[in-house]
Structure formats: structure tokens, C-alpha cells
Amino acid sequence: MSEDCIFCKIVNGQIPSKKVFENDTNIAFLDIRPISTGHTVVIPKKHYSTIEKLPDEEVGNLFKAVKRVALLLHEKLEIDGYNIVQNNYKAAGQVVEHSHVHIIPRNKGDRKIELNVPKEGASEEQLDQVLEKIMA
Ligand code: 5GP
Ligand code: ZN
Predict the structure, then answer these.
(1) What is the pTM of this model?
(2) Whose CB among 43, 62, 83, 122 lies 3.0–4.6 Å from 100's, allowing a Cys bridge?
């Protein structure tokens, strides 16, 4: 529990939320500023700032909950698909520093999230350079 964390306050009921799923370790609730109808956030009940801080067993619990909620949204809402998004650190758009996973319902042609994929791929050499760095 972190004192001024909005998601910790949701977990302990200090701030109301529209919960769609709860078990011993995780909860999921509707995002108050949804990208699309049914946009849901899945979180661990315990406070960890980023995915790097999650103990391994919590990662398992979190992604089991994500799968449950994804199935639920897919079954109950009329959607064609969904994106699963997990932001880490400010540079990647993380605002709430309580690790969480977004499930964002999608419909054909809705243009809600567009990945900026460059037209040209990386050269073999560039890929080798980065691989070397990662594996060193
Ligand atoms: P982030 O940008 O950190 O990955 O996403 C945080 C998400 O939490 C945002 O989509 C934001 O709309 C949502 N959010 C922030 N505060 C609250 C709140 O008090 N209640 C709910 N339900 N969602 C919140
Ligand atoms: Zn928290």
C-alpha cells in the first residue's frame, strides 16, 4: 500500500470504482477516461510501481486475471478484438505508478490505437548491433 496511490485507494475502497473482476490478488475496473467502451484496467492488489518490481508469482496472477477479464469483455461486449497495453515509466506514458494492464476493446476500423510502424525495416547490421548490446 502506497499512501498517495490512487489505485491503492481503489483497492481499499477509499475511492469508488466500477469493478468487473476481483479475486485474492487482483482487481479489474473500468477506466474513468476510456479509450473505447469497456476499457478496463487490471491491477495487483499490492503496490508495485512497474512490471520490473512485480514478484514472479504476481506476474502469473496478474496475467491470469488479464486473460479472465479479456474473455469476459469479449464475451459480453460486442467487440471485434482488444489491445492489451502495459505502460512502464513516464517516457512510455505511465501516469499511475501502480503497475497495471489496460484491456482496450476494439472494433474494425475504429482507429483507436495506431502503431507507428516505420516503412523500412532495420538492416541485418543494426539488428546484430542491438542484439550484441542486449546479450553482452
Ligand atoms: P497509465 O497512463 O498510467 O498507463 O494509465 C492509467 C489509467 O488509469 C488511465 O487510463 C486513467 O484514465 C486511469 N485512471 C486514473 N485515475 C483513475 C481513477 O481514479 N479511477 C479509474 N477508474 N481510472 C483511473
Ligand atoms: Zn498503489
Answers:
(1) 0.95
(2) 43
